Amino acid sequence: MGHVSAIRELDFRTRNLGWVNRSSVNDQAVKERVQDMLLSRLVHPNHHSEWLTRSIQCIDLTTLAGDDCPSNVARLCSKAAYPISTEVMHHLGLDLGILTTGAVCVYPARVADACLGLNRIGATIPVASVATGFPTGQTSLAVRLDEIKFAVENGAKEIDIVINRELALAQKWKELYQELVAMRKACGESHMKSILAVGELCNLTNVYKASLVAMMAGSDFIKTSTGKETVNATLPIGLVMCRAIRAYHHKTGFKVGFKPAGGIRTSKDVLQWMTLMKEELGDEYLTPHLFRIGASALLTDIERNLANQVSGDYYLAEEMPMA
Ligand SMILES: O=C[C@H](O)COP(=O)(O)O
C-alpha cells in the first residue's frame, strides 16, 4: 500500500504525539554502532562497481544555485538520463538508456525547464522541486504552501519541503505536525520529501522526534539536510533517522523512504551510506522508491571510479563528460 494514497483514508490516525514525547536517543550507542559498521561491514572492493552503478539510480541529481538557468538545467537533465559514458556502460554490460538517476532536483522556478529538458530527450525521470522557502523556511505558511502548489502545477512529481526548525526546537510537535499535514495536502498526488535540516536541530533526540512527526504527517521520504546548513548528512544522524523509519514501519506498516543529502561527494561516501541502509533497513531500501541521495557533485566521482575500472586510468573530474 502506497503511503500517499493510504494517508487520505487514514484520517491521520497514525498521529501519536505521546510516542514522540517519550522518545530519546542514546548518543554513545549511536556512535558505537556507526564505528562498528565502518570497521566491519563495508562493501568488499570486488563489488564496488556493482554497488556504485546501483547507487546512480538512487541519486537525485541536483542543482540549487542562484544562477541556474534553462541551459544548465537542460544539461543536468541529459546527465540524469545518460549518467555514464557509452564505453563504461558497455563494459558493465548495460544497454544505453537503461540506467538513469532517480530524479533531477531543482528550484521551483526551474521545474518547467527541467520537465521540458527531460521531455525533449524522451526521459521519464521525475522532477523534484525544493519548496517552502528552501533552505530556511523563513516565510509565512501561506507563502510556503503556495510555493508547493506552484511547483506541482509546473510538473514536479516530488516536493522536497523544509520543516519549521523553530517549532522543532521549541518541542511544538503538534504544531509542526499540523504544518506538515497542510504541506502534504498541498502536494496532492506528488510525493512529499521532508527535509529536517538536522544540523539545526541541536541533538539526536530532536532528529528522531522530528523524523517521527514528519512520517506521521504523511511524508513519503525523510531527508537529512538542504546542503546549505553548516552540518549536513552525517552517518550518526542517518542511523537515527533509519531507526525512526524502522520503528514507524513496525508500528504502522508504512515504509517511508530515506534521503541523505548535503556534502555527499565521493564514491566512498556513497558506499558507506548504502551499507547503512542495508544494515539497518535491508536490501529493499537500496532501491529508488525507498532510497535517494541528494547530491550535486557525487555522480562525477562515481563516474571517475567506474571509468577507472574500465581503463585502469584515473581521470580528473573535469575530464568526465558534462562534469
Ligand atoms: O538536496 C540536495 C543538496 O542540496 C545537495 O547538496 P550538495 O550540493 O552538497 O551535494
Automatic annotation (TrEMBL):
Record carries keyword Coiled coil: no
UniProt cross-references to InterPro entries, sorted A to Z: Aldolase_TIM, DeoC, DeoC/FbaB/LacD_aldolase
Alphabetized GO MF terms: deoxyribose-phosphate aldolase activity
Keywords for the protein's UniProt record, in alphabetical order: Lyase, Schiff base
Active site: K223, K259
Metabolic or biological pathway, per its Swiss-Prot or TrEMBL entry: Carbohydrate degradation; 2-deoxy-D-ribose 1-phosphate degradation; D-glyceraldehyde 3-phosphate and acetaldehyde from 2-deoxy-alpha-D-ribose 1-phosphate: step 2/2
Xref: Pfam families: DeoC
Known EC number: 4.1.2.4
BP GO annotations: carbohydrate catabolic process; deoxyribonucleotide catabolic process; deoxyribose phosphate catabolic process
First-level EC class: lyase
Keyword Transport annotated: no
Reactions performed catalytically: 2-deoxy-D-ribose 5-phosphate = D-glyceraldehyde 3-phosphate + acetaldehyde
Cellular component terms per the entry's GO annotation: cytoplasm
PANTHER family on file: DEOXYRIBOSE-PHOSPHATE ALDOLASE (PTHR10889:SF3)
UniProt record similarity statement: Belongs to the DeoC/FbaB aldolase family. DeoC type 2 subfamily.
Protein name (record): deoxyribose-phosphate aldolase
Naturally occurring in which organism (per UniProt): Scapholeberis mucronata
